[in-house]
Amino acid sequence: MMAAMRPARRFAATVLLGSFFLALAAFIYVRIKGIPAGTAVPLAAAFLVEFPFYLLPGFMPAKLRRPPLLAASCILPYLIYSVPTGQFSPIGFVLLTAIALTLAFWFAVLPKHPVVDLLFIAFAASIYISKVFEIIFTSPVPKLQLSVLGHAMLIRTCAIAILAIRGPRPGETLDYRFLPTARECLVGLKWFVALVPACALALYATRLGIAPHPPKNAWLVVPEFFGIFWFVALSEEFVFRGLLQQWFEKWTHSPAAGLVIGFVLFGAAHLGFDRIFPNWSFAIVAAVFGLFCGLAWRQSRTIQSAMVTHALGATLYRVFFQ
After folding, report:
1. Host domain of residue 246
2. CA atoms of 259 and 162, how far apart (whole Å)
3. How far apart are CA 63 and CA 235, in angstroms?
4. Mean local confidence (pLDDT), 95-114
5. Is the pLDDT of residue 190 over 90?
6. Whether residue 156 is found in the same domain as residue 253
7. What residues contact 322, with CB distance under 8 A and at least 6 apart?
């Protein structure tokens, strides 16, 4: 039914349905934690405002094609929660504004060139690795990490900049969707089955000392999967498979080279895992993990198959191993 709707109607229906569940989750969380209404309302409002922007790349990225609008959308959720709760910081505001303007105007100002594309990904990665959002998005509630607002902003801003401002180059496929087709699910499941023994062997070979255990909260497995699928897997597979693997495959004229470079970079991106640097053991496991996600992308030529492989593998690790 959703697929039969026009993009604008699908977007509106998804925003309404998702906002309902987000508001419900916020209400339950506030009641459990006993957060005052004066603090809870601005926090919930910031997430509810960010949510439609996060969905836009998958439906109508051209709506924020203009760099000034895109930059303003990055700053709005921060102002909505930080000013009423007393968390507003001039330094944080300047940092966020600089990040937003750079991401929004990158492809509008710089020439079309592969180096420009790679530097954009490197800049976005440096923002994430630096953990600057933990400095900007400070929380009025202890143990409530609001840096996720910054991460959501980073993901959708990069996606919109690439999809709508940069646009696809000749022979390039940029496919950013939240739901896989039946075939993409089967392809992703196939490579997940192949991934499990390979990653188990990599875990043993690297001597990480990780042993399986029963899930502490089995009822959280399903929401854990979809959270990973729509947040972690979507962003990482878009970058590493939908962009980097595809670019290097095209530039080297070799699918094998694109696959190898893609999973090597994916492993390198996890060198700082668990706040240990360099975490070579986990980077090797992540590279093996990335290999099978790359194979899923290469078979279907869409990131959605890789997202299925990624989300299933990451959920298995987080629920039964981490």
Report:
1. 182-320
2. 21
3. 20
4. 97
5. yes
6. no
7. 210
